[in-house]
Write a structure and sequence with these properties.
This protein is mainly α and 998 residues long. Helices cover 61% and strands 6% of the residues. The protein starts with 25 loop residues before the first strand and ends with a helix.
Length: 998
């Protein structure tokens, strides 16, 4: 649809008509039950016929209705003998309820007058629809979609619910048709914004409710195709064609046929939205990510002009690319940011920025950067594809028709940059790197050298102040010369001088002359940068210098204030003062309130300083005020901090679970939390740094604490967002423990890997890991391993169809948990044993076991794992045909999983509810939930679980007559099962055969 549909056959009240005094407090609703309010007080509207009279007058929007028209509206062709008297009675009663002058008599009829603007919900819906149409016409789909959503939210069930009469029935049909038109328009905009994955679930439900509405079918086909489900999209067309032929004896309309052909031909124009726009109120429509330009930018006028001309030429060119190269500290970023700010007006659709970390050991992954860019450009997370190629294609599609400037800072090489280039006419990219990108096709290359002496002196003067430099000009020239005219070195030296009012320029010049006479002779970029930072480092106070070098030891993208305090072994307040002083010297960056990070080259220099300077004090030396010295000790404290804090999170989420008692205990304490939400927020916000710390500890030989940190953070394996990094860290820990011959560490590492494989649906790998862990558990006296290993083995055996074997393992786990006094672990094993009994057809015992587990969880106040128990209980009740209780248990679990950000279990719980709805004969609702489950489980849970959901979705679609689409789901499920060698393949083949025969 080209615009937002207007409500049919509705007119605004005549502005010239005489109106009563406005009564602001009155509000009315007709898009649902007929209701009236005065302020927040709901007013009685009387009998159904009295409400019918009120509705007829409200829908005329101020125009007079004659008595004959009202009688016809209420009773049609067979009015009662006293119809006129009844109308008068209803009008009289309404006058007593409403404000004076609202219901008026006029020309033998009645009218509702004097209402304030927006007093009627239908009028508000009309205004919002008109606003949405205007916004869409202006190309602002973001605002149009948001406004249209508000309009649709005004509907509250059936229009004019329970209101009798032919007029009410006609209005119900008219307004329901308008609602569907608005809904189609909003869904159309959803797809234009790239929200196809979310739209599938809603469209599936709508096509089931309105099977003959071709526009909904067309939108569903497009949403499925853009979600990578081409076979299902074509199946929707086949279902539609058959339904129309059977019900109406007609063929699909030309637009639907054309869409089918375009899908068959894989038309590239269908692949992405035609005009993707940012999500409302989540991300800006026009990103403005450029870092702030420095107020004292100096010189570089020739480069500014040259780069400005290249960017200005973007209009009319496929793409303008400028690549700046030079040694670290030469001012590439500063120049690029300055030029980008000057060119902002030429790129009205936004500016993107990223630090690609090319000079560090871990350059930014283009796939991750593209995800960040797509979110900044308004693409919903669920619409961002997984692969690099797909993300790059969507990125270019989103930028098509826009004028956006992209600043790619600190690139490693051309291969890292290529997927991030806009590639669209009117867009431009600025790239900075330590290497010349001669292999970046079409790029305008710029080699940035050090400043001229005049420019260097000017920059120094701006920072230090004209008065101090003027009297010591020669000394100032000595300073900038000692800095090698390198902008970053000049800035650090000048900042030091500016912050020390008692120093003269000559003092600084003497320091530089004594320590770094050879700066201009160093040609290796890293060495030049190291020499530059040495200037700032040498001027630090002892406590600042120690903080600078120790904080650089920690891996991870940044570091929190609390973690930094652990590294330094200092109070948080003292640590904050030190870190802020380092920020002032430009040796440290403030990433966000309470978080800090190094530029990658500064981090390398800080580590070199730690290797050189961080030695334990000599024997007999006086104690220092800074706590324990030494790089190893600093990293050990950081590991202690993360382990203790993560153990606290684990204990809050799993009260009564004794695993925390069996973890390694360090000397440095962790944080304390008031509730589980605060604890979970910390865990997920620190996930990257926590996993980096675990990996670093593995490399430095701190195996047991590193493995225990991963075990305590096992929720990250199920979160989806951090699953891959968690698995990588656990794999490294396993290999290191095996190489070291540490049976306990290896057993625990293999247990954490089992968790990761189970979450990903890789049951064969999980079985292999836990089998080896079981062998190791017999070699060591480890209550945690001896309990959790059989628990995992039981779960895996049940998944593999070895139900009796699984029950044996789980009974062993229950015995071990009880011996250890681990009530939460016992509850977990009981609920898992319930699943085993259920699989063996022992429904009564399955219910009892699950109830026992839930009872323990509830007594312990175990919210999250209590939800897992309710999940097991819900499954058992469902098999016992106690469906209402089953759904209640599953919905209670679902609320907790969503609140705890457990996407795996959220998706699986939705799937189980869909199964029950299918059993209850509600295929349309089941299809909607199955689609939701697929969306939630995207990227987590593994193929086997996806196959299960697709099988149920196919059954639901079959139940609502969408046979071809059902077959498409089953064929995909069959392909998954056959690839995995899963026994479920036979069941799906059985589903496909009857359909094929029909």
């Amino acid at each position: 649809m080209d615009g937002v549909p207007r409500v049919p056959e509705q007119r605004r009240p005549d502005a010239s008509a005489e109106a009563a005094q406005p009564v602001a407090a009155l509000r009315f609703a007709v898009l649902g039950p007929v209701r009236a309010w005065r302020g927040e007080e709901q007013l009685p509207t009387g009998s159904p016929q009295q409400r019918a009279l009120l509705a007829a007058l409200l829908l005329r929007e101020g125009r007079t209705a004659t008595a004959a028209e009202l009688i016809d509206a209420l009773w049609g062709e067979e009015p009662p003998s006293q119809a006129l008297a009844a109308v008068r009675t209803y009008a009289s009663r309404l006058r007593k309820v409403l404000d004076p002058g609202v219901l008026v008599s006029e020309s033998g009829g009645y009218a509702v007058r004097g209402l304030t603007e927006g007093a009627l919900d239908l009028a508000r819906a009309q205004d919002l629809a008109a606003e949405a149409e205007k916004a869409r016409g202006a190309g602002d789909l973001c605002h149009a979609r948001e406004v249209l959503g508000r309009a649709l939210a005004l509907w509250d069930g059936e229009v004019l619910a329970s209101v009798p009469g032919p007029y009410a029935e006609a209005q119900r049909v008219r307004l329901e048709e308008w609602r569907l038109q608005l809904l189609e328009s909003r869904l159309d905009m959803d797809l234009e914004q790239g929200c196809h994955a979310e739209a599938v679930s809603e469209l599936t439900a709508l096509t089931a409710a309105h099977p003959l509405r071709e526009r909904l079918r067309e939108l569903l086909m497009l949403a499925l195709y853009r979600s990578g489900r081409q076979a299902e999209a074509l199946a929707v067309y086949a279902d539609t064609r058959r339904l129309l032929a059977d019900e109406l004896g007609v063929d699909p309309r030309p637009g639907l046929k054309e869409l089918q052909q375009r899908i068959l031909q894989a038309d590239p124009a269908l692949a992405e939205p035609s005009a993707p726009v940012a999500e409302p109120a989540v991300v800006p429509v026009r990103p403005a990510q450029l870092p702030a330009t420095v107020p004292d930018f100096t010189g570089r006028s020739a480069f500014v002009d040259e780069l400005g001309e290249v960017l200005a030429s973007a209009d009319g060119r496929v793409m303008a690319v400028s690549a700046l190269a030079g040694i670290g500290g030469v001012g590439k970023t500063t120049l690029a940011v300055h030029v980008a700010h000057q060119a902002r007006t030429a790129f009205p659709d936004g500016q993107l920025y990223v630090d690609l970390q090319g000079a560090g050991p871990r350059a930014a992954d283009p796939e991750t950067v593209l995800g960040s860019f797509l979110r900044a450009l308004g693409t919903a997370d669920s619409a961002i594809p997984d692969s690099l190629e797909e993300r790059a294609a969507l990125y270019r599609s989103v930028l098509d028709g826009r004028r956006v400037l992209v600043l790619l800072d600190n690139a490693k090489d051309a291969a890292q940059v290529r997927p991030l280039l806009p590639g669209m006419e009117g867009c431009a990219a600025l790239v900075t790197s330590r290497v010349r990108m001669v292999d970046l096709a079409g790029a305008h290359l710029v080699d940035l050298d050090v400043m001229s002496p005049d420019e260097a002196l000017s920059l120094f003067t701006k920072i230090v102040g004209e008065e101090r430099v003027a009297s010591e000009r020669d000394a100032a020239l000595d300073v900038v010369a000692a800095c090698g005219f390198l902008p970053l070195a000049i800035r650090i030296a000048a900042s030091r001088l500016a912050s020390r009012r008692t120093w003269t320029v000559s003092v600084l010049a003497a320091k530089l002359a004594d320590e770094r006479r050879r700066l201009d002779e160093l040609q290796a970029g890293d060495l030049a940068v190291k020499a530059t930072f040495e200037l700032g480092y040498g001027a630090l106070e002892p406590a600042q210098a120690r903080a600078f070098r120790l904080l650089g030891l920690a891996d991870g993208p940044d570091i929190s204030l609390a973690a930094a305090a652990a590294v330094l072994d200092l109070p948080v307040e003292t640590t904050e003062d030190l870190l802020e002083s380092l920020v002032d010297t430009s040796l440290l960056e403030s990433a966000a309130p309470g978080r800090y990070r190094y530029h990658d080259l500064v981090r390398l220099y800080a580590r070199a300083c730690a290797e050189r300077d961080e030695q334990p004090p000599s024997e007999g030396a006086p104690p220092t005020p800074f706590g324990q010295w030494g790089s190893d000790a600093a990293l050990s404290r950081l590991l202690d901090f993360y382990l203790a804090t993560t153990a606290q999170v684990y204990a809050i989420e799993r009260p009564g679970d004794r695993l925390v008692d069996h973890l390694e205990h360090g000397e440095f304490p962790g944080l304390r939390f008031d509730d589980r939400h605060e604890a979970q927020d910390w865990l997920y916000s620190e996930a990257n740094c926590l996993l980096a710390c675990a990996s670093q500890a593995v490399r430095t030989g701190e195996l047991r604490r590193a493995v225990d940190l991963l075990w305590a953070a096992k929720d990250l394996a199920e979160s989806g967002a951090n699953s891959r990094d968690y698995e990588a860290a656990a794999t490294a820990a396993r290999d290191a423990a095996q190489a070291a011959g540490d049976a306990q560490a290896e057993g625990r590492a293999r247990t954490t890997l089992t968790d990761a494989h189970l979450a990903a649906g890789r049951f064969a790998q999980a079985d292999e890991e836990v089998g080896r862990a079981a062998t190791l558990a017999r070699e060591v006296s480890d209550p945690a391993l001896n309990s959790w290993v059989p628990n995992h083995r039981g779960v895996i055996a049940v998944y593999g169809g070895r139900h009796a074997e699984g029950a044996g393992y789980l009974q062993e786990a229950i015995t071990s948990f009880r011996s250890d006094g681990n009530l939460a672990g016992e509850a977990s094993a009981l609920c898992n044993l319930s699943r085993a009994h259920l699989a063996m057809g022992q429904t009564t015992s399955a219910i009892e076991l699950a109830r026992q587990g839930v009872g323990i969880y509830d007594r312990l106040g175990h919210t999250l794992r209590g939800a897992n128990g309710r999940y097991a209980l819900g499954l058992a009740l469902a098999q016992a045909r106690e469906l209402t209780q089953a759904v209640d248990q599953l919905n209670e679990a679902l609320e907790v999983f969503r609140d705890s950000r457990q996407r795996l279990w959220e998706g699986m719980t939705i799937f189980r509810i869909a199964e029950i709805l299918l059993t209850e004969g509600k295929p349309a609702q089941a299809a909607t939930l199955a689609e939701q489950s697929l969306a939630v489980l995207r990227g987590i849970g593994g193929d086997w679980r996806r196959g299960n959901v697709l099988t149920v979705l196919g059954r639901a679609l079959y139940g609502i007559g969408q046979l071809d689409r059902a077959q498409a789901c089953w064929r995909e499920a069959l392909s998954i099962y056959e690839g995995l060698g899963s026994p479920e393949a036979a069941e799906v083949r059985g589903l496909l055969l009857p359909v094929a025969a029909a």
